[in-house]
């Protein structure tokens, strides 16, 4: 019934010429939420330009380490032990993403996990744009109580069968995205598309392998990893960055969103140059580095409120090459 209504709405709509030619609705389940966590299952529903389902695909992935919160995703070490490694499914995964907009619920997370896996495999995912269904629901003004997938599904009458199972989550999202896309087209809504930048550099830290005990009794992001504390910046904050001038040692720099160089490597370079890497943005922040200045992240919003200067990653890389020494 939902499919019939969506198809009818799509065919009756003068479809916006600027809309993408195809979509890959993606869900990945992972060992956790941190930068060195791994994908353990992935699913893709391919949709055409008007949201019609073309096909779907699903695979388990051996993360070569402990699977993390089994009580959430249900995938045990035994189930994953014989699964292919990511590098073994990378080509097929890429073929299903190629030339399409990646669609996901909280898309930045799925994209970053995928980009990191391809970087580990010394390759790149053929994705240049992503669309977050949370952002789209906001653009459409949907009356949702929250931004959970289950709330979006309920709004469109889509029944979840196995929450946190990649294939079913991708199915649910595809079924909810199709009427969302049709509504956006009918209203001439500009889709909230963001650039996907593949990682050009990557470093990994060792993590527990499958079968090793990792102590998940109080599982949360980074439970079993040593915290990475940076040394305090030895220079005073000279104030805000001014366009056309050099960065100066002691300036507070914050980062937001995707970066083509893996985030921690970029932060390391900033630290080595004598800058203070800030984890949050305040009135004292000298500069925000982001490739998505129009995004609605809390740092970007605060930067607008405070008038904090903003540059993209490429400009920041050039500024890092010539940082002014601190006074005295």
UniProtKB/TrEMBL annotation:
Domain BRCT: 245-323
Keywords attached to this entry: Exonuclease, Hydrolase, Nuclease
Exonuclease domain mapped to chain residues: 22-186
Database matches in Gene3D superfamilies: BRCT domain, Ribonuclease H-like superfamily/Ribonuclease H
Keyword presence, Hydrolase: yes
SMART domains xref list: BRCT, EXOIII
Region (Disordered): 202-243
NCBIfam families: dnaq, PRK06063.1
Stated name of the protein: DEDDh family exonuclease
């Amino acid at each position: 019934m939902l499919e019939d209504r969506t198809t009818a709405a799509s065919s009756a709509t003068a479809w916006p010429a600027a809309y993408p030619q195809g979509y890959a609705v993606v869900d990945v389940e992972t060992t956790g939420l941190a930068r060195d966590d791994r994908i353990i299952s992935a699913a893709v529903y391919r949709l055409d330009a008007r949201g019609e389902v073309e096909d779907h695909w699903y695979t388990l992935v051996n993360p070569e380490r402990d699977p993390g919160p089994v009580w959430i995703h249900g995938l045990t070490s035994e189930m994953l032990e014989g699964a292919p490694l990511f590098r073994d499914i990378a080509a097929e995964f890429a073929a299903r993403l190629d030339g399409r907009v990646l669609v996901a619920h909280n898309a930045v997370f799925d994209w970053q996990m995928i980009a990191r896996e391809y970087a580990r495999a010394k390759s790149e995912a053929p994705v240049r744009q992503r669309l977050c269904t949370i952002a789209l629901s906001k653009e459409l003004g949907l009356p949702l109580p929250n931004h959970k997938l289950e709330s979006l599904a309920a709004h469109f009458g889509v029944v979840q069968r196995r929450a946190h199972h990649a294939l079913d989550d991708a199915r649910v999202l595809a079924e909810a995205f199709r009427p969302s896309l049709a509504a956006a087209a009918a209203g001439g809504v500009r889709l909230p598309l963001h650039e996907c930048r593949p990682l050009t550099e990557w470093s990994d830290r060792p993590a527990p392998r499958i079968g090793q005990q990792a102590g998940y009794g109080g599982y949360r992001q980074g439970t079993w990893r040593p915290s990475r504390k940076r040394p305090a910046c030895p220079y005073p904050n000279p104030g805000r960055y001014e366009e056309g001038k050099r960065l100066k040692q002691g300036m507070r720099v914050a980062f937001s969103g995707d970066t083509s160089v893996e985030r921690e490597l970029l932060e390391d370079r900033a630290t080595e140059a004598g800058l203070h890497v800030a984890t949050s943005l305040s009135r004292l922040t000298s500069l925000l580095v982001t490739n998505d200045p129009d995004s609605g992240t809390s740092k970007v919003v605060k930067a607008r409120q405070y008038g904090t200067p903003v540059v993209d990653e490429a400009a920041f890389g050039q500024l890092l090459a010539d940082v002014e020494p601190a006074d005295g």
